[in-house]
Amino acid sequence: MVKEEKAITLVALTVTIIILLILASVGLSGLNSITETEDSKLSSELKMVQHVILEAYTKYITTSKVIPDESILVGTKLNDSNISTNNIQNSNGKYYFKYDGDNKIELKDTNISNYYLVSTEQDFKKLGISNTKEKYVVNYTTGEVMNILRLKNSEGKALYISNN
Q1: What are phi and psi of 28, to 5 degrees?
Q2: From CA 62, how far away is CA 82, in angstroms rounded?
Q3: Distance between CA atoms of 160 and 105, rounded to whole angstroms?
Q4: Sequence-distant (≥ 6) Cβ neighbours of residue 74 within 8 angstroms
Q5: How high is the pLDDT of residue 15?
Q6: Rounded to an integer, what distance in angstroms lies between the CA atom of residue 86 and that of residue 78?
Q7: CA 77, CA 58: separation in Å to the nearest integer?
Q8: Positive or negative CA dihedral for 37, 123, 162, 72?
Q9: Are residues 65 and 114 in contact, defined by beta-carbon separation less than 8 angstroms?
Q10: Nearest 5°: phi and psi at 32?
Q11: How many CA atoms lie within 13 A of 149 on its CB side?
């Protein structure tokens, strides 16, 4: 009489492991694609906000030769009392965008009142931007834009852009 063994074969086990590895790699590459897409979206939006604020500043300069119309410059002006809540740090008369622990970028303008917080739906609507949940600190003259809600991308790089 021949005894039947009910055991998994080495071939079946190998095939199962290979299938699981393929599924895992597909899942990880999909996750990487999602992260890359989100980073790309954040970078594009940063550039779009910069473009819009530079356009607004150009309009401000060309229409304000006689009487400056500050209503063109959208947002809330920053000052020394509200900078820390917006990830801006003052150190020895220089201002920094603090985006990750001790990592920071020196801002180009030493006059903090030239920086504006653009964060409300009304601010974005005035600038012609829709469908954003982000918050930005911008400088119309230097073209600096920093995302103060996300601060950095998945690679740890600051969400900051300047005109230079």
Answers
A1: -70, -40
A2: 30
A3: 9
A4: 56, 116, 118, 123, 126, 127
A5: 80
A6: 9
A7: 18
A8: positive
A9: no
A10: -65, -40
A11: 12
- Rounded CA-CA distance 112/97 in Å is 12
Q: Which of 50, 49, 42 is nearest to 153 (CA)?
A: 42
- Residue 159 in tokens: 């969400």
**Are 137 and 148 spatial neighbours (Cβ–Cβ below 8 Å)?**
yes
The pLDDT of residue 4 is above 80:
no
Contacts of 22 (CB under 8 A, 6+ apart): none
Per-residue pLDDT tens over the stretch 97-136: 999 888 999 999 999 999 999 999 999 999 999 888 999 9
Q: What is the DSSP string of the chain?
A: -PPP-----HHHHHHHHHHHHHHHHHHHHHHHHHHHHHHHHHHHHHHHHHHHHHHHHHHHHHH-SSS--GGGS-SEEP-TTTSGGGTEEEETTEEEEEEETTEEEE-S-S-GGGEEEE-SHHHHHHHT--S----EEEETTTTEEEETTT-B-TTS-B-EE---
Let me know how long the chain is. 164
User: Quick one: tokens of 146?
Assistant: 């920093």
